[in-house]
Design a protein that fits this description.
Elements lengths: L7 H15 L12 E6 L2 E7 L8 H9 L7 E6 L11 H7 L4 E6 L9 H8 L3 E4 L3 H7 L1 H9 L3 E9 L17 H13 L2 E5 H7 L18 E5 L18 E5 L8 H5 L3 E4 L2 E2 L2 E2 L1 H10 L4 E5 L2 H9 L5 E7 L25 E9 L2 E8 L10
The structure holds NADP nicotinamide-adenine-dinucleotide phosphate (NAP).
């Protein structure tokens, strides 16, 4: 692969292609978000982005807009064009047929059956091809797709709303609402981009949340994330709001197939048998299953039990925590139930990626720092 010195104009074009790609944030699932810009003589002449699985890919849309003028132009594509027949024909054929002078690519397609294949096809055809421009940005935009393709796991974000002293619910369970309206609206946009929303049976029993993606006007978003409940004993009430349309629901349980599952199945709720683990369901296996179901990003809205168990299982990629300007005191529930630590050396270290005010609340995005491989037990 050629790693070239890119010009300022190259950067501008790829930045624009990434902006276009991001327009598919809530709709491309399970596909990646991809954007494309076609330029010639220092001017952008056509743009495109992938909007929905089964519909045209970014390159094809930009090509349609460029028409004849695509010949001899430079293509900027945030991800390597695909070479396989999926829901649509291979994009690399469409790009080749347009006879561009040069193709600049962001990231290599992480899909093992593609990985570098599209680039090779372009190079073999004698087209100047350069890869890696703003590749890190393209991968961040597609963190879930990349992780699913490379590791067979979804990208898992745990959201918590807490008081400034890190409390997520009163001892009696009351927790609605700790944060303000702006934070709750922000949560809606994270839900909308996610493939699935996970919670625990206790939160369902206590709060009966809808867990769907809603638009700013209160209406339901067109694509609903799959609502997933970790519920080893099938304690979820059959009329729980999270099981109702719009969108589908899935329960992971240890209850075997049979009578107890029927009322759920009769309502169209999917039920999967889960492996048992200390504290409930084997969460690593649950995430592996979600990846097999093509879930890219999983958004967790649960209490301290499930949030702590996910952290302990080592499957959390990001924490999104909203701190409200209030104090709930030591008797209230914390954020993560974890086994007692005996030494500060055992603490879980985080890296803070971003802090931002959302209305009157402070949003912190952090990432667990993976322990060095030598310290890992699995
Ligand atoms: N502040 C916030 O952001 C926020 C968000 C959500 C909820 N809440 C509050 O949190 C409270 C509920 O929290 P919670 O901690 O009791 O419940 P939770 O974390 O929502 O759910 C825990 C339940 O999930 C099930 N589960 C299945 N597998 C598990 C595993 N491997 N590890 C842990 N749990 C597993 C268990 O029930 P089974 O034995 O039935 O499987 C467990 O009791 C409520 O008061 C709610 O209002 C706050």
């Amino acid at each position: 692969l050629n790693v070239a010195d890119f010009s300022d104009f190259d950067r501008q074009c790829m930045t624009r292609a990434l902006e276009l790609a991001a327009r598919g944030l809530a709709t491309t699932d399970p596909n990646p978000r991809v954007g494309c810009v076609i330029a010639r003589e220092g001017q952008i002449i056509a743009e495109g982005f992938h909007e929905r699985a089964g519909e045209a890919h970014a390159e094809v849309i930009a090509l349609r807009a460029a028409g004849e003028r695509a010949a001899g132009a430079t293509f900027y594509i945030t991800q390597e064009p695909c070479t396989h027949f999926g829901r649509t024909p291979p994009c690399v054929d469409a790009v080749l047929a347009a006879r561009p002078a040069r193709v600049v690519i962001g990231m290599i397609d992480p899909n093992p059956r593609e990985r570098g294949g599209g680039i090779k096809r372009l190079e073999t055809a004698g087209i100047e091809t350069q890869t890696g421009l703003l590749a890190a940005e393209a991968r961040v935009l597609n963190c879930g797709f990349v992780q699913r393709m490379e590791q067979g796991m979804p990208w898992v974000r745990v959201k918590l709303a807490a008081s400034l002293d890190g409390r997520t619910a009163l001892a009696n369970g009351e927790s609605q609402w700790i944060t303000g309206e702006a934070a709750r609206a922000d949560v809606q946009s994270w839900r909308a981009r996610s493939s699935a929303i996970l919670t625990g049976s206790a939160t369902i029993l206590r709060d009966d949340p809808q867990l769907n993606a809603r638009l700013p006007d209160g209406g339901a978003a067109t694509r609903q994330p799959l609502r997933v409940i970790a519920d080893s004993e099938l304690r979820t009430p059959v009329n729980a709001r999270a099981l109702s349309p719009p969108g589908e629901a899935l329960i992971f349980t240890n209850v075997p197939e049979g009578e107890q599952r029927r009322p759920f199945e009769a309502r169209g709720v999917r039920i999967e048998s889960a492996r048992r683990a200390a504290g409930g369901i084997d969460l690593r296996q649950l995430m592996t299953r979600l990846a097999q179901m093509e879930m890219n990003e999983v958004w967790v809205e649960a209490g301290a039990f499930l949030s702590g168990a996910l952290l302990a299982a080592g499957v959390v990629d990001e924490l999104v925590i909203y701190f409200a300007p209030s104090i709930l005191g030591g008797a209230a529930r914390g954020m993560f139930e974890l086994p007692e630590l005996r030494s500060l050396k055992e603490r879980r270290e985080l890296e803070i990626l971003e802090t931002r005010m959302i209305g009157a609340d402070l949003r912190v995005i952090a990432r667990p720092v993976r322990p060095p491989a030598s310290a890992r037990t699995s």
